[in-house]
Amino acid sequence: GAVVSQHPSWVICKSGTSVKIECRSLDFQATTMFWYRQFPKQSLMLMATSNEGSKATYEQGVEKDKFLINHASLTLSTLTVTSAHPEDSSFYICSARVMSAATEAFFGQGTRLTVV
Amino acid sequence: AQSVSQHNHHVILSEAASLELGCNYSYGGTVNLFWYVQYPGQHLQLLLKYFSGDPLVKGIKGFEAEFIKSKFSFNLRKPSVQWSDTAEYFCACVINTDKLIFGTGTRLQVFP
Predict the structure, then answer these.
(1) pLDDT (mean) for A8-32
(2) Does A64 or B100 have the greater pLDDT score?
(3) Using CA atoms, how far apart are residues A112 and B15, in angstroms rounded to an integer?
(4) Which residues contact A48 (CB under 8 A, 6 or more apart)?
(5) CB of B23 within 8 Å of any CB in chain A?
(6) How close does chain B come to A22, measured CA to CA in Å?
């Protein structure tokens, strides 16, 4: 299957700083990328949907000014957690899909963010 | 609101037992349905998917799922589980939009 790479795999940062997470589709062009957050022993909660070249669509309750998403090209989307706080500590996962909803989504390996 | 629900949160089985994990979605239109598996410390991987056609879908590693439109269900089955099937299983659905919505997940533990 297609490969989606997330970087970094884990990051520890201080409260108040910002962290950028990258999501790349390595061997295909992803018109749509999704960002999810997974709490321990819970499901993936969709945070936002980003389409290349347009603004991301955020789910209800997700602060768009805190979680900045940029999808500048067909192979790269970034999530920036701004002014991070300990409650932002979580596992963030991106996924990418080719073309239409009728295709499977491929997932990155996730990024473990710990804010201290 | 559109949603996906998985009723079994934690399932414990012995090897060779049969498995059925429930998944229901709440939407009356066209849906695309998926089952994903997450082995400990690994990425989510696709087990199988349903878009249209034969409602009985066969996936990898001996898994299958049946789409029953009248019941809004897409249950996952395997006739004989193995210890290596221990993982978290997620049902997911694309409902009329680009969004892939996940169920709450089912943790499966298989004991030898």
Answers:
(1) 92
(2) A64
(3) 32
(4) A34, A35, A56, A57, A58, A59, A62, A64, A67, A69
(5) no
(6) 16
